[in-house]
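re the bet — no i am not wrong, look at it urself. input seq straight from the record:
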Amino acid sequence: LYFIPRDLWGGWGKPAICAVYLFYTFFFFLQRFVLMLHFNAHLGAWTGPTKLGAKALNNLNEIVLAPLFGMPAGQYFLHHVVMHHKENNVFPYDVSSTEPYQRDNFLHFLHYWARFFFAAHFELPIYAFSRKRYGLCLYSLAFLFGNAFVYYSLYKLDTMATMTVLILPFCLCSFALMFGNWSQHIFVDPERPSSNYALTYNCMNTPENQLTFNDGYHIVHHIISFLHWTELPKYFLDHMDEFAAQDAFLFDNIGFFDVGLYCMTGQLNKLATHYVSYGQVQRTEEEIVAEFKRRMVPIDRTKKKAN
C-alpha cells in the first residue's frame, strides 16, 4: 500500500485498494490470527533450534504480525498471559477486569473499551512494575515509545496507508478484543468471583470452536492455561462432574460474541434456550434468567473485605 501512488485511477484507486485490504484482512483472518497468537503466547509453537532462536521465532507473531491486525507490538504477552491469567479478572489488578461493571449495560462497555483504547498502553508497564516484573516493565516501555515513533513516522510518510495498515486496525481490533473479553467474563458470580468455574463459562457444539482453537472451553483454559487446545474438550468431559458441582455455566450451539450480544440486548430468555443442564443446580427458565442477571451485577471487593 505504501508503494501505490495516490493518484492511481484518478485518485480513487488507492482508497479502494485500502478498503479491500482492510475488509479482506479483518473479515477472513482477524479471528483466526488472534486465537493463533493467543495459544502461541501460552505454549510457543517453536522449540528450537536453540532456546534463543525459539524465543525469537515465537515473538515474531507478537512483534511483527500483530500490529497488522491492530495489536501494538510487544504488548500481548504481558497483557494476556502475565496479567490477565495471573490476576484472573480480579479488579483492579487485571486492568481488563469486567468485575466493576454492570455487564449488560452498553455504556459500561463503552467505558471498558475506552479505558483499554486510551490507557492500557500506560497501565501495562505500571502493572509490571507494581508486580516487580521489571524486565517486562522495561520491555513494555520500550515498545510503547517504539510503537509511537514507528506509527508517527509512517503516518508522516503515507497517511492513507498507515491509517489502513496500523491505525484503523487498532480501532477495530481493540473493540473486538474488548467485546470478546467482556463477553467471556460477562457472568461472574458475586459470591465466588475468584473461582475459575464462576468467572467465565464454556461454549460447546459451536462452529466458533473450529475457528478459535476451542476457545469456547474457557473455564478449562483458565484452570490450565498451558493445556494444548486439542485437549480442552476432553478435559471438560473427564471432569464434567466437578464442573457441575461448581455450578459452572455451559452453553450449546452458541459462541461468546452471541452470548454477549444476547445479554447486551436483553434477550436473556433466548439465551436461556442455549443453557445446558448437565448435573448442576436444576433451574426453570425463569430461574436461569434470574441467575444470569445475578452474575452480571458489579462486584465491589472492598465491601467483601469489610464484611
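see?? The beta strands are 202-204, 250-252. told u. also The mean pLDDT is 95. so pay up
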